[in-house]
Structures are given as structure tokens and as C-alpha cells.
Amino acid sequence: MGFKCGIVGLPNVGKSTLFNALTQTSSAEAANYPFCTIEPNVGEVFVPDERLTKISTIAESKTTVPTRLTFVDIAGLVKGASKGEGLGNKFLAHIREVDAIAYVLRCFEDGEITHVEGRIDPLSDAEAVETELMLADLESLERRIEGLERRIRGQDKEAKATLALVEKTLPLLRDGIPARNLDLNEDEKKLFRQLNLLTSKPVLYVCNVDEESAATGNDYSKKVEEFAAETGAGCITISAKIESELAQLEEAEQNEYLETLGLEEPGLKRLIREGYDLLNLITFFTSGPNESRAWTIRQNTAAPRAAGTIHTDFERGFIRAQTIAYDDFIKFYGEHGAKEAGKMRDEGKDYIVQDGDVILFKFAT
Fold first, then answer.
1. Model-wide pTM > 0.85
2. Tell me: the pLDDT tens digits for 311-341?
3. What CA dihedral angle connects 209, 273, 178 and 6, to 10 degrees?
4. Strands 42-46, 35-39: parallel, antiparallel or unpaired by DSSP?
5. What residue ranges in 129-257 does DSSP mark as E strands?
């Protein structure tokens, strides 16, 4: 799996510009990392990974298939979205479908681009977005109480546990604290995920700065970075304007332009990396003469479940996973060399797949 990241923000913060820039950049990276439009507000990109390129070269694969990442440009946030103002209902429905939320925050001055609140205050902008999400979560939980109480009268044990969790979450939201800050034990975590609360999703703050501040940030972005560190959120600094310009350049020109700005890589790559960290994602690979492919799973995924990301039959009939660590695959120049060096391992059902593993799954049909 890849992951789906919703891009949200107030009007005139650069949200749609960033979305367009990121997806265009992917398109500009030639055939290896194409971009396709699924809907007007959804863009799917292939995740660039140098490891996959090296694996495919060694295996002399006919095709190379990176894993994918989906960006959703979620429009319509205004104050009152939780009550259906603007495109509120559509806005909230789209957020429920994503794995993480990127809050695009305006961290630049521009007299020609008005701010909806008439001032530049990225933390206040973030609070405005978060407040609407918390209000929607409050309403959602309060609506559930009557139905849960009815099920409890029918001796539904899960309903009793769910109601206890709802009653534990409501005071937090009423105090203006997002649901992701709730302290949960292992038994509660599964039920909590089923509540599908908007403020339970991981958050990444994207500080949209002016061109001059792209490499070092500015006073606005530094305040956001401090807040993110305090709250356990992710944070990156990016210039949507620069990303738009990069999208129009060939790779060699991109590298030259980035160097003049003091940047090492495009913002897309940094955004993907932060997103992976935020969701605890890792990548494993499959490789052969026909195809080398990257697959994304969550950390601590056992081998059968990883096999299931390729095909459900692989998980049901799992026998073993013939595994080579990425470094060994490169060092011994592929599967044959790694096997000769004793670096190919047979792993069973309890094996936890590691980032970079090159795996051949054996399964019964």
C-alpha cells in the first residue's frame, strides 16, 4: 500500500498551488514517476526510491514499478465547515477517507494576495482548521451515544466498550484538544480506529514560505516548527512557488536551480519522507527478470500480511519468505550472489518485514 494524504488549508494559503506543483513535478520526472489525474482534486504519484532503481538494474528487470502516493486537494474549508458552511460536508467526508492530513499554512507576506483573516498568522490558521475538525468530531460522537446505549440494553459488550471510549474522548474535544492526543491502551486502540475521528489522524504542517526562505525558513515557519515539536506533529518548510517552477524544468535544470537556492532536493521528496515517518511506513521489494516493484507496508508487519499486499492468495497460502536485506542484495549483486554468500534467509510466519527487504514469497495454491 501507499498512503493517502489530504491537503487542507484556509483560502489563499497556497494549498492548491502546492497540490498542482507536486503533481506536475511528478509528471516532469519522466516515465519512471508519472502522474495521473483520478478526479479533478486527486493526484496520484509514484514514490521515487533510488534503491528500487538499483535493484531493477542488477536484476535486469524489463519493468520497474514504484509504490504510489495519493494527494487529495480538499477544498471548501471556511469557518462553520463543521455545520455545513461552504463545502463543509464534502470537505469533512473527504478528510475521513485519508490516512494523514497536511495543513498548508501561509508563512509568506504578499500584498497582492489577501488573507481571509486580513493577517499572516500560521498558528491561528492551523487552529481554525483544527477547531472545525474537533467540532465535527464532537457532533459525531454525541450522535452515537443514544444508539450505543440502546445496544447496551441488548447486552452488546462491544457497544459498552465503545461508549466508554466515547465518554473518554468527549471531554478532551470539549477542552479543545484533538482526539489523537488521547491516551489509549492496546484494547482501546482498535475500537478507537473504528470511530474514524477527523482529529485522530496524524498531522503534517506544511509551511509555505517565500522563495528567499525556502532553504532556511523564516520567523513564521520557525514558530510552526516549535509548535509541531511540542505536539508531536510533522513539519516541513516548502515554497509552492519554487515547486511550480521546478515542475517546468528537466532534471538537470532542476538540480542546477536547486543548488542556486541552497536546496538539496525537491519538496515532493521531503513531503513523502515526512509522510512515511508520520504513518510509520516502510518499503519492501520484489524483483526478477520481468519486474522489480516496491511495496509499502506499516512497520511491524508480519511476512504473511506483507505478502497479502501483493495478492490475497499469497497471504492465505503463505509458506515462507525468502528474504535478502537490501545492502546484501547490492553488495553481492543480486539474488544469486546473495544466495551463494549465504545471505538469503528463509523466514516464517512470525518474521517482521524490515525496510528494504527484497523478498520472494512461497505460497500454496
1. no
2. 999 999 999 999 999 999 999 999 999 999 9
3. 80
4. antiparallel
5. 203-208, 234-238
